[in-house]
Design goal:
The complex is a heterodimer of chains A (about 240) and B (about 140).
Chain A lengths: L1 H33 L2 E5 L3 H28 L6 H21 L4 E6 L5 E5 L4 E7 L1 E7 L4 E7 L2 E13 L2 E12 L4 E3 L4 E4 L2 E2 L1 E4 L2 E7 L7 E7 L5 E7 L1
Antiparallel strand pairs in A: 2-5, 3-4, 4-7, 5-6, 7-8, 8-9, 8-13, 10-11, 10-14, 12-13, 14-15
Chain B lengths: L1 H59 L1 H7 L3 H11 L5 E10 L2 E10 L6 E10 L9 E8 L1
Antiparallel strand pairs in B: 1-2, 1-4, 3-4
Helix pairs in contact in B: 2-3
Classes of the chains: A alpha+beta (about 240), B alpha+beta (about 140).
Chain lengths: ~240, ~140
């Protein structure tokens, strides 16, 4: 009986010692880990690829906006040189950023495949920059490669003009088309119709009501300035 | 007879010590592995949050707009809205200049703690019409 009691005490003590040791160990482990600043760098290759692709498309839009603006200002320029300069700065920035983080990156383009086209001074005004950019990124586990059709189009056109009495209702459409996905983007441009600020009504459509007193032909002159800086205009005579 | 009992007690003691060491070793190992994997899960969770937050802001155009306008207050508010309330953040913004990143601003947000798990996620903006120089946002997140 006495021996049984001693044995029970012994086991109880053993359990208590193990429990105390376990709690102490836990506190030490948690304490050590919490006392260290552990900065982990997020390296999700799919996120990196998506962001590079998205921003490369934005870069091409930026080039088109600059070319359109220079063209509108009547400047003489070599669009290939400008395109090359902007793309090369971007590529060197990407390489500098991601290669230092262990990615192997290759962004390339064929200068002979870049073209800039404009078609203005009509009721439809279009600026287009065509470019194919190859993006390749890899780390030790994954390699992602894609040829991106980075063609961008800015398109402004006078959709509808109705004259009721002395009021002229004008509807204008301004869209940004990204060739990669045939996606039509809406850029919330500031649109002026004969100097009057047009209201945005959704879907890339802007409307304005103009008061017209007089007779004869009326010229509708539209300008759109988008956040990306592009400035385009369209003209229609009714 | 008492000698035999003493020897038995010594055996018990040695047995107990060895068993305790083995049990403690195994439990500590299991616990620390579990803790590390828990911490890694939290780090992955924070990384995903950071990536998603920057992607959403970039897609909406707000990231570019606020960074190029240097409207840090609005950017802070937008990041704050995109993150759960128990996640804290701080960010830095850099400009690409002559082949190097030059800090424009930071840290903005909460003070980065000296301990614990902190996740850094970055986004590189390609420029805008008025300033074609790329920008980099480094977003630090922790709980």
């Amino acid at each position: 009986m006495f021996a049984g009691v001693r044995k029970a005490q012994f086991y109880t003590m053993a359990v208590a010692v193990i429990a105390i040791a376990l709690i102490t160990t836990s506190i030490i482990i948690v304490g050590i880990r919490n006392s260290m600043q552990n900065v982990e760098i997020s390296e999700d290759i799919y996120f990196v690829f998506d962001s590079i692709k998205r921003e490369t498309l934005e870069r091409v839009e930026l080039i088109l906006a600059n070319l359109t603006q220079m063209d509108k200002n009547g400047a003489i320029f070599d669009y290939l040189e400008i395109s090359r300069y902007y793309l090369d700065v971007w590529i060197s920035c990407l390489k500098g950023e991601y290669e230092s983080r262990g990615f192997k990156i290759n962004v390339d383009y064929d200068i002979s495949q870049i073209s800039y086209v404009k078609d203005w001074n009509k009721s439809t005004s279009v600026s287009t920059l065509k470019a194919i950019i190859s993006i390749q990124i890899e780390n030790e586990d994954v390699k992602i490669e894609q040829n991106v059709n980075a063609t961008h189009v800015f398109k402004l056109y006078i959709n509808r003009v109705n004259q009721v009495g002395s009021t002229i209702f004008v509807e204008v459409n301004f869209t940004k088309i990204i060739g990669n996905s045939n996606e039509i983007g809406i850029d919330y441009a500031t649109v002026h119709i004969n100097g009057t600020l047009a209201n945005y009504v959704g879907g890339g459509v802007y409307r304005a009501e103009l008061v017209f007193i007089g007779s004869g032909a009326v010229t509708i002159y539209v300008t759109a300035t988008s956040p990306s800086g592009v400035f385009v205009e369209a003209l229609k005579t009714i | 007879m008492p000698l035999l009992k003493r020897k038995k007690a010594q055996y018990y003691t040695v047995d107990f010590i060895v068993a305790s060491i083995i049990i403690l070793g195994v439990l500590s190992l299991v616990y620390s592995q579990y803790y590390i994997s828990y911490e890694q899960d939290r780090a992955v969770y924070l990384s995903n949050l950071g990536n998603r937050c920057l992607s959403v802001l970039a897609e909406s155009g707000k990231l570019s707009e606020t960074v190029y306008d240097e409207d840090w207050e609005t950017l802070s508010q937008l990041i704050d809205l995109a993150l759960p309330p128990n996640v804290y953040f701080s960010f830095y913004v850099y400009r690409w200049e002559n082949g190097n990143w030059v800090k424009i601003v930071g840290p903005i947000g909460e003070d980065i703690p000296n301990s614990g798990t902190i996740v850094k996620t970055t986004y590189v903006l390609s420029g805008n019409y008025t300033d074609p120089s790329p920008r980099k946002i480094e977003l630090y997140l922790w709980e």
